[in-house]
Structure formats: structure tokens, C-alpha cells
Amino acid sequence: MNLSDIVDPKILSQPVYEPGRPIDDVAREMGLDPAGIIKLASNENPLGTSPLALEAMSRALCESHLYPDGGCVHLREQLAIRHGVEPDQIVVGNGSNEVLELLGHVFLTPDDEAVMGNPAFIVYKLVTLLFGARAVEVPLKDHVHDLTAMAAAVTDRTKIVFLPCPNNPTGTINSADSVRAWIEQLPERVVVVIDEAYAEYLENETDWSRVFASGRRLVVTRTFSKIYGMAALRVGYAVTTPEIAALLQRSRQPFNVNAIAQAGALAALEDEAWVRDCREANRLGLAQLGEGLTALEIPWVESCGNFILAEVGNGADVGHRLQQRGVIIRPVGGYGLPNWARISVGSEQENIRLLAELRTVLGK
Ligand SMILES: Cc1ncc(COP(=O)(O)O)c(C=O)c1O
Hints:
Layout: H1 9-12, H2 23-30, E1 38-39, H3 51-61, H4 73-83, E2 90-93, H5 96-107, E3 113-118, H6 123-130, E4 134-139, H7 147-152, E5 158-164, H8 176-185, E6 191-195, H9 209-213, E7 218-223, E8 236-240, H10 242-251, H11 259-270, H12 272-295, E9 300-301, E10 307-310, H13 315-324, E11 327-328, E12 330-332, E13 337-344, H14 348-361
Parallel strand pairs: 1-11, 3-4, 3-5, 5-6, 6-7
Antiparallel strand pairs: 2-8, 7-8, 9-10, 10-13, 12-13
Bound molecules: pyridoxal-5'-phosphate (PLP).
């Protein structure tokens, strides 16, 4: 009997997530010095990690022989204060990706559907397929989620609707008012997931309190991977109703968030200066990339995230040729955008280098 005969068939057909290529990998393949390579492929923070978080994590390392607080009690308390909710409305995960997967555990079966945009953050589709449910993908309109078409795609089988604010890979966002009005139109039964992985980069964060107060099944996800610069640590969380939070808690592993990450996240929350500085640096970096791309006559999409989607030509080919020159970006052919690439905002120097290499590669 083949191994595949005893495997759950949906695992055999499950697409694989393709992450941005690590610097060491590219260095080895291209015969380059890793120190000269820049990675603008995974929407990481070019300024590094909050220094307060780094300090707290070094201290926490010395307690590595102890299991972490399985309930993330302190972190949930602080997150609750930050979001103006109760701690029983917060669920912490091993990255917000884990929170998305927990939603699948709790809600999705092979009889169900989940509605999402296309292109949108690919993990919504991966989670939906992993649980055997149907991914109903609604094309974006001018790179923005089409809320009317998404509402129209909801059926009696729809359990979850995913809306990233802003979206990855486009960087676009629907206005807070339009999203709140849209949620009101959706059947009350449906769980609405608003993915706010990049929310700290926005000038104004959205207030969801009225939506929670209306009793809607709302889940707002956040991450410490982006502005807090803790992508390696894997901490994300959901703000939701107490009822949904209790279900998500039940479906997670006992110690899903490690102690070092918890200590770092707690300290990072205090580091308001860091968030302010990173937001400002990102604003300047987006402007720098936008101007540079325009000068190269490369169309690009106005972004609210820490990355920019650009129509570079054959994305895979341009990405490969940039890699040969020590610059890693993310082609997005897998998102159905073969002529586009997603470029993360780097430091000022990294952005200059990217634009210069892009000019060379494109022969401009
Ligand atoms: C829109 C969006 N949501 C969620 C995530 C996952 O973040 P985490 O590192 O918290 O798993 C990402 C990561 O790139 C993202 O772009």
C-alpha cells in the first residue's frame, strides 16, 4: 500500500505556502556574500526589533527551562487594555497565522464555504482548504476588495468571510465606514475576520467597538511580526467576542506561544516611541519607493502597508535577476499576478539599492 493511500486526500491536494527566500539560501545559490544581500520579500521591519522587546527577551532567555504561561495571562491583560476589551476577548497565537488556523479548527468542515478576495493573503485559502471547506474567491476591483461582490458571494454554507485591512499583496484598504456598513449587511450567522496585520502602519486605527457592541461575530487579528519587528518570535492575536475566544482557546495547543515571545510582546507594547518612529520611517520609505518606481515608469499601487505592489514585467524573471544581484523581492505569480512583484519597504539605503538594481535589470 502506498503512503498516499492512507493519507487524508485533502492533504495531498493542499497547496504549499511559499515564503520569501532566506538570505542564506540565496547567497548559497548565487555564490554571493550574505552580508551584501538585502531581503525585501517578507514585509519585515527594516529597522529591526523594538529595543525594549530585545532587552526583555534576553532576560526571558535565562528562564528557558520553564514552560511558558500557557494562558498568556499578562499579555492578554495588556492587549485587552490596549484594545478597550476584556482579557477573555483576546486569544494569542503562534503568529496571527496560527489564529487563522484556529478559526479553521473551530468553524470549517467539508460542508462549509469561506469567502475571501483574490488576490488576498494566501493563508485564508490555505486554511480553508486544509479543513476541506470551499474557498470562494471574489476578484478585487482595481486592486481593492469588492465588498458588494463579497457580500453577494455569501451563501447558506458560508461560515467565515475574510477581509484584510490593509490587504497583502496589494496594500490597499477599504474605508472603515464602508467595512462597518458592509458587516451590518452580512447575515449575523457569519464570522467576519478582519486581518489587521499592518494596522499599526495606518495613521488612524479602526474602532471596532460599535461592531462588537452590536453582538456581531467579529474576529480582528493582529501581529507582532510587522511594526514590532518580531517576525521570528511568532506572536499574533485575535480580538473577538468572549464566546468565540473560548472556542479558539479550546482548539489551541497548551503552550502555543513561547515565553521569550510573550516577554518580548509585553515589552514591545510599551514601546510607543518605536511604533511612532517605524510608522514615520515607513511613510518616508513608501514615498521613496513610489517616486523611484514612477521615475522608472513602473506602475505601482498606492499602499497602506509596509510594502508596495509594482508591475515590473515578468515578476519571476525580474525577481530571479535581482536575486543574482543580491536583492530579494517577492514575485506574485502565485497570486495570479505574473507581471507584478511585491517589494517590502527597506531602510533608505536598501530602497536606493533596490531601485538602482531594478534599473539595471530592466535596462532602463
Ligand atoms: C495580511 C497578513 N496577515 C497575516 C500575516 C501573518 O503574520 P504572522 O507573522 O503573525 O503569522 C501576514 C504576514 O505576512 C499578512 O501579510
